[in-house]
Structures are given as structure tokens and as C-alpha cells.
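Sample A.
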Amino acid sequence: MGWRLFTLLLSPFFFSRITGEILWSRLPSETLFDEFVVAHVLGWWGKAVMIRNQALLWVLSIGFELMELTFRHMLPNFNECWWDSIILDILICNWFGIWAGMHTVRYFDGKTYEWVGLSRQPSIMGKKDQWQPFMGPLRFIQVLFLCVVFMMVELNTFFLKFCLWIPPRNPLVVYRLILWWLIAIPTIREYNSYLQDSKPV
């Protein structure tokens, strides 16, 4: 509720009626500890642990905000103002989740998946994984397929909540996302290994 209250109170009509005391006492705490802020940060932390590449994570982050724009006529909770999507979602919540997730991967010496076309070089930790999406048209389609599936699973969460009338705080939503996350971690690793073993066409 705090996130929505913050968005509502920043409209010009409400700005004329609020005092500085209300603005600085209630809004920061209600915004920072809102369930959607926590969901954004934890969600992008989990995605960073799965994907392990900042460039692709930023593509997915911006791509999902574009999907919110596309489907906001169907899903009421996708109706956000431009600064909510760009500043709060992408530049603050998603950035912090991506940053924390990549630091988690590095802390546990996890392999990062390189999506740029660098040559394979053995490192101290072993061979680097590389997606190399621009090595050929088939490889580009294979990496794009991963992005499309990723976005469909993410969008499916919101459509299921809407169609089945599941409230956002229902634990079923969280359990479903955790299950998908646990399935996706080894799946994306296997898909990366498959792409590394097959020659790009």
C-alpha cells in the first residue's frame, strides 16, 4: 500500500494539501518497506543469481518495464507513472537487486555467464562460460529464446494473480516463484553448457 500511497501523494493535487511533516515522516518508511520494493529487490537478486550477467539483466529489466507498458490496459497494477517505472523500479530497486545478486555470485565464486563474444580463456577459477549471442544467427535466436521464456514466466505470475484473484500477499505466489527459481538455476546452467558445447551457426 505504501508504494501506491507514495505514487498518489506525489501528484500535484495532493502535493498542495500535504505538509512537510507528513512527507518526511510517513512516505520514506512506507516506500522503503513496501512489499513491492522488497519484491523488486529480492526478485532481481534471484534473477542475477540465475542469469549471472549484468548486460542481459539490464536488458530483461528494461524489457519487463516495456511489458508493463504494453499490458497495463489488462493488468491494473501495471498502471505506473513514468518516474515510478524508470526511477524507482529500474534505477533503484532493480539496480540494487542486480548489484547484490552479482556480488553474491562473486562471493561464492560462482561462474558468471558472459553474453559478449569474447574468446574462451582459462582463468584461475576454470573456463569462463560464454553465451556469445552475436556469433551467428542461430546463437542469437537461442539467447533470445532464453529472454522470451524468462519474460513469459515473469508475466505469467501477474496474469495468474489477476485471473485467479490471488492477493499479492498470498504465500502461494511466493512459493510458486521460489519453486520456479529453484528449477531455473540448474536449467539455465545446463542451457549455457549446451550452448557452449554446440558450435554457433
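Sample B, a different protein:
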Amino acid sequence: MISSITAALTRAAPQGVDYGIRFTNANFDSTSQYTQPTFGITSSIAYMLNSPLMFTADTAFTSIAFDAFFFGVGNVVNVWSGANGTGTLLASQTFGQNCTPTCLQTSYSMFFANALSVTISPNANGTGLDNLRIGSVPEPATWAMMLLGFGAIGYRIRRRRRVHILAGA
């Protein structure tokens, strides 16, 4: 969550579980905390990103989802195959303005293959981020268990057919 990002960026004590993701290069304008009393939401806060944010994961991931407020055009999200914004550009999305000071955030998703880092570059008007979610690549043991389960289901179906055929004869 954004509180974990803020803690890491301000060198405060880390919060939450370490999932092997490092955030770098970002500055958040804490004076631009965003609330929406007109909608009865008093605890909805998104920190305004005022410089590029980059995060790198220890293991590959295949999707990113986030809620965002884009105040102006030219907000760019790039997904890279290498650490720290290096390697092959796997996906890139430029976002236009989706918000004015009285709007709700919009949810976005991006899918790609085996990324290690993401850069988010806000425009001069700022970008608000919240609920950042990353989808990881399943581990080999997960694939093995899934294949074993499908095999067991197939064996059970085949055996059931054979019993019905013998009973009908």
C-alpha cells in the first residue's frame, strides 16, 4: 500500500511484509493529500506523485493494477524486463487526464510477460496512486500441483466411463 511506500521513501521504520519489491526515485507531495468530503469519503487519501516512481521486484511478475488520479495529460507507465528500468520495454501506456479535484480514482490494469521493473512518470500537474497490486509468475511447484490435479481428474473421469460401459454390457 501507499503507506509502505511512504515509509520506505522517508526512511522511517518499514511496515508490512517484505515481498522483495524496492521503490526508488519517487517524491510524494504530502501537502496534496486528497480527500472527498462531497462523497462522504473522509479517509480516502492518495499521495501526489511529483517525480518519476520506479519499482523493481526480486522475481518476475506478469501484471500490475492500480487506482490513479491523473491531473492532466502525459502520465506514462512503462514496464521493463530488467531491473531498475532496464532491458526490453514490455509494455507502455500513456494516460490522459481522468480527474478533476472532485472525482473518484479510476482503476487500471496492464498485462505482460516476465517483468522485473516499472517506471511511472507523472505530468507536471501530479498523479495520485493508490492500491498498487502486482501479479506474480506462479512457482514451478504450483504448476506441478496443478498438472497433477488435472491428471487425477482425467483419470477419475476415464475410470468412471469404463465402469458405466461395463455395467451397460
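Observation for Sample B: The domain at 2-137 is CATH 2.60.120.260 (Jelly Rolls).
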